[in-house]
Amino acid sequence: MENLDQTDLRLLDALQRDSSRNAAELAEVVHLSPSQISRRRQRLEREGYITGQSCKLDPVKLGLGVQAFIQIETGSHTAETHTAFRRLVAARPEITGAWTMTGEADYLLRIYCTDLAALNRLTQEVLLPHPSIGRVHSQIVMEELKDDSALPL
């Protein structure tokens, strides 16, 4: 973060909250000209501070009514086990986030499914039988209190 000034941080904050804004709209927020905004944005992309752009979709409107977090403990701690598990994660579109963890669980997965039956099928037919998985602990999200899209800048 040593190469960032307060203007860069304001620009990054505005972009992470709504990346669809054009240079003129961002100029009003950041208090620079649109051409300065464009140059800064290009530099931030080039230096790797901005790694891509996406749009946020409403999972419920798309028929994905169940969000869950699943903690996974692997059956063993070998390179083959972790490679097989990573392949599983990459192959399943229901798994929208995956993290390695400290503590009891080796991995934490964020899952979106159409309903509880689909979550049950994923757990019973895909996760539990997988040779790399030793234990599965599921938690269903009842209500999302805060969106996780913006980093504290």
List the helices and strands and how they pair.
Layout lengths: L5 H12 L5 H8 L3 H13 L19 E9 L4 H13 L3 E6 L6 E7 L2 H12 L5 E8 L13
Antiparallel strand pairs: 1-3, 1-4, 2-3
Helix pairs in contact: 2-3
Could you characterize the architecture of this molecule?
The protein is an alpha+beta fold. The chain has two domains: 6-46, Arc Repressor Mutant, subunit A; 66-140, Alpha-Beta Plaits (2-Layer Sandwich), CATH 3.30.70. The chain has helices at residues 6-17, 23-30, 34-46, 79-91, 116-127; strands at residues 66-74, 95-100, 107-113, 133-140. A four-stranded antiparallel β-sheet has the order 2-3-1-4. Strand 2 (95-100) and strand 3 (107-113) form a beta hairpin. The radius of gyration is 20 Å and the shape is elongated.
As residue ranges, the low-confidence spans are none
How much helical structure, as a percent, in the residues? 25-40%
Q: Estimate the mean pLDDT confidence.
A: 94
Q: What fraction of residues sit in β-strands?
A: 15-25%
Shape-level CATH architecture of the largest domain: 2-Layer Sandwich
Main beta-sheet strand count, sense and barrel state: 4 strands, antiparallel
In what order do the strands lie side by side in the largest sheet? 2-3-1-4
Question: What is the tally of beta strands?
Answer: 4
Salient structural properties:
153 residues; Alpha-Beta Plaits; Arc Repressor Mutant, subunit A; alpha+beta; 5 helices; four-stranded antiparallel sheet
